[in-house]
Design brief:
Elements (H helix, E strand, L loop, with lengths): L2 H21 L7 E5 L2 E4 H17 L4 E4 L3 E3 L5 E9 L1 H6 L5 E8 L2 E9 L4 E6 L4 E3 L2 E2 L12 E4 L9 H14 L2 E3 L4 H9 L5 E5 L3 H13 L3 E3 L7 H4 L1 E5 L1 H11 L6
Parallel strand pairs: 3-5, 11-12, 11-13
Antiparallel strand pairs: 1-2, 3-4, 5-6, 6-7, 7-8, 8-9, 9-10, 13-15, 14-15
Bound molecules: D-MYO-inositol-1-phosphate and calcium ion (CA) (2 copies).
């Protein structure tokens, strides 16, 4: 395993221990609202602190972009992109679908990725050019080549300012075009599940770099494709993502392009 990936894995495991321990007594959780329907708990913060401590100890010069503490500049071209708990709403409710997501980018390109699901004890890892793995076994995107046969993940709009009406139109189109739509509730884990071939595709708008960075490398290293709704490469910055096996991705982009905010 690449030395930098090993650091990311150690960081994810220590964060996941904090999350898993806290999941045993959800009544003790202190939940605060960032905005309407957007929650954060002390577990998100403790998980992030544990990840940053591990990363900083190994690479004191690297820059960090983390959901709860923001951007810390470093003196190198490496940047860690961290979602300490993706799927916080699920976590708060004891719905066992959430994860830790850690990516390392070099000059803006994601090169290492870890997504760890503590409920299922599933560790997804990828190194650029080295393939994608689930608990150390290689994974590939799904083999279905027709969107009509595909199980597709998505994220619903949930913030007060989100345009639910436009999404509702897209929902109708996509639900007619595929075999089933799912809204599991953790973007990074949804992308990992595309990489593992459990979902044939995924699309969501209004997401941040920390929701997408690690999962996007898992998908491409598993043989899939990722982009913004027009198929463009700048999705991490633009906040919208479509991912899938090459065939399904190719059939999703033309349907999503008209909804792009690019
Ligand atoms: C959220 C989850 C959710 C997605 C949201 C994200 P959080 O992340 O990934 O599935 O729909 O856009 O913000 O807040 O639980 O880390
Ligand atoms: Ca997230
Ligand atoms: Ca989060």
């Amino acid at each position: 395993m690449h030395a930098m990936l090993a650091v990311a894995v150690n960081a994810a495991i220590s964060a996941a221990q904090i999350i898993h321990r806290a999941s045993g007594d959800l009544n003790q959780l202190t939940v605060s609202k960032k905005q309407h329907n957007d929650f954060v708990t002390e577990v998100d913060k403790a998980s992030e602190a544990a990840i940053i401590e591990t990363v900083r100890a190994a690479f004191p010069d690297h820059a960090i972009l983390a959901e709860e503490s923001g951007c810390t500049d470093g003196r190198s071209d490496f940047q860690w992109i961290i979602d300490p708990l993706d799927g916080t709403t699920n976590f708060i409710h004891g719905f066992p679908y959430y994860c830790v997501s850690i990516a390392l980018a070099y000059q803006g390109e994601v090169t290492q990725a870890v997504v760890y699901d503590p409920s299922a004890n599933e560790l997804f890892t990828a190194t650029r050019g080295g393939g994608a793995f689930l608990n150390e076994r290689p994974i590939r995107v799904g083999a279905r080549d027709c969107l009509a046969d595909g199980l597709i993940g998505t994220g619903f709009p949930f913030r007060a300012t989100d345009d639910v009406e436009t999404y509702a139109r897209l929902f109708v189109e996509m639900s007619r075009a595929c075999a089933g739509l799912r809204r599991p509730g953790a973007c990074a884990l949804d992308l990992a599940n595309v990489a593992a071939g459990r979902l044939d595709g995924f699309f969501e708008q209004g997401v941040n770099a920390w929701d997408m960075a690690a999962g996007s490398l898992l998908v491409t290293e598993a043989g899939g494709r990722v982009g913004d709704y027009t198929g463009g490469a700048d999705f991490l910055r633009l906040g919208e993502i479509v991912a899938g096996s090459p065939a399904v991705y190719g059939q999703m982009v033309p349907r999503l392009a008209g909804y792009s905010r690019v």
